[in-house]
Amino acid sequence: MSDILLLNGPNLNMLGTREPNHYGAQTLDDIVNSLNALSDQAGLTLKHHQDNSEVGLIEQIHAAHSDGTRYIIINPAAFTHTSVALRDALLAVDIPFIEIHLSNVYKREDFRKQSYFSDIAQGVISGFGAQGYEFAMDVAIKHIKQQKGE
Length: 150
Ligand code: DQA
Fold this sequence. Notes:
Order of helices and strands: EHHEHEHEEH
Number of helices: 5
Distance between the termini: 20 Å
Bound molecules: 1,3,4-trihydroxy-5-OXO-cyclohexanecarboxylic acid
Structural class: alpha/beta
Oligomer: single chain
Radius of gyration: 14 Å
Strand order of the largest sheet: 2-1-3-4-5
Shape: globular
């Protein structure tokens, strides 16, 4: 069981070398390390999972339902624009979540403006690069502490 589940979708394992003009120079390990430090500081636990397939992501979301996960931060990557199955998984578990994108998807191709998650997310962060993940952690930590009455 972990308090926060961080999910990253397809091709995000390539961060650092993948289209740095859109996604920046930081690797996924860099991002996860800084988020682990933030959760440690807050006395919370973080689990990270990156997957290039929908199945792997959906299974993690299902597991979160039974293991007491309190918050999900998800960058669904390309599945943002295609995946009804991933949307349905998040609806099924009813755990609050943030949709995050490194790039500002509204400044890019039209197909990236369509998301299957934004209307069911607690909020959306898009366009702040790796820093956006830190914003999302801040929200997740405050949400959990508030729920615990701290
Ligand atoms: C992304 C934006 C998506 O459109 C794209 O398919 C990605 C990454 C982002 O973080 O900016 O893979 O989610």
